[in-house]
Amino acid sequence: MSGPVHSLAARYYTDPAIFEAEMLGLLSRTWQLAGHVSQIPKVGDYFAFEIAGQNLFAIRGRDSEIRCFYNVCQHRAHELVSGSGTTRVVVCPYHAWTYELTGELRTGPNVKSVPGFDKSKVCLTEVCCEDFNGFLFVNLDPQAAPMDVWFPGVREELHAYVPGIDRLAPLEWVEIPEKCNWKVSVENYSECYHCSLNHPTFASGVVKPETYDISPLERGYVLRHTTECQDLEQMTYPIDLSVEHAGEYRSWFLWPMVSFQCYPGNRLNTYHWRARDVDTCTVWRGWYSADGAEDQVVRDLAMQDRETTVEEDIHLVESVYRGLKSKGYKPGPLVLDPECGVNSEHSIETLQQWMREAVDG
After folding, report:
1. CB neighbours of 191 closer than 8 A, spacing ≥ 6?
2. pTM for this prediction
3. How far apart are CA 184 and CA 345, in angstroms?
4. What pLDDT, in 10s, does the model give residues 205-234?
5. In which region does residue 314 sit, left (phi positive, over 0), alpha (psi from -120 to 50) or beta (all else)?
6. CATH architecture of structural domain 32-139
7. The domain defined by 148-360 carries CATH number 3.90.380.10
8. Which terminus of the chain faces fewer neighbouring Cβ atoms within 10 Å, N or C?
9. Distance between CA atoms of 303 and 125, rounded to whole angstroms?
10. Using an 8 Å Cβ cutoff, are 192 and 216 in contact?
11. Could you give the CA distance from residue 253 to residue 128 in angstroms, rounded to a whole number?
């Protein structure tokens, strides 16, 4: 009979060489959340962002299509845009080389004097992007399989649990720096073994921990969280149970760095992580409402979450990361209950297998 499954060795989290390999490999070949389509509603609207250490930007073309490009001029490598804004054409601030919204070179000062110059051969480097229920994802791998292959069925489940998701827009995004490797934060998110002890508000005023379970989908790279809402008299905010799925909490973690959460009452929020270096990451916590309109229930829930669960998790993940650097740490056995449930770490077993495969192949 085989013995217990042990957690990953500390080096998977603390070794700078492994982090660099992830940036060049895993994080450059997976779907990452860039932003929301509501950020660029009109032709020429754009915003810049960073994925796997690469500077990129998204822009809406005259055909209303959204395209994503590396944020670099093809002349002498100056960055093209910063922040967000709107433009008729993309003009490099260095030498005024000018690009169409589709990435093709329009013109550059004195380029016609160059013998054999062919502007049709100069174009910004495009990256794969997808509109996933209004959320804009990118993948730096030009041969990337579509998101529905990576995350089968999630697009449709989100529609079922969040009625009107296509009308949603960000009400607020909260940026949360954490002093830990990104995988420590992702692991903490992907189990609720710690919830009753460390998240009293979430465990007593939002969900019923005894009904909590996290399971990988049969196909793809998804961990699905499911649980029931707390008894109505204990809920910390109002919900309308006449709406389908309103009495449930469901979350879809999309490997490696994004999660959609549907809180009881069909309230959508998101996590997305950015790896800064081997020792630090940033978590963005997103909250959404119809057309981004003011919604006091969402505001209050976001504040409650920030002051309780988020703050509590910061202390947990930073303590874990300090512990991973301890000479006294030896990876312990995971608690794999055959019945699964809230006090089992079967989701961590799956997650750590993905982490191991990303590094070791």
Report:
1. 214, 345, 347, 348
2. 0.95
3. 14
4. 999 999 999 999 889 999 999 999 999 999
5. alpha
6. 3-layer Sandwich (2.102)
7. yes
8. N
9. 40
10. no
11. 21
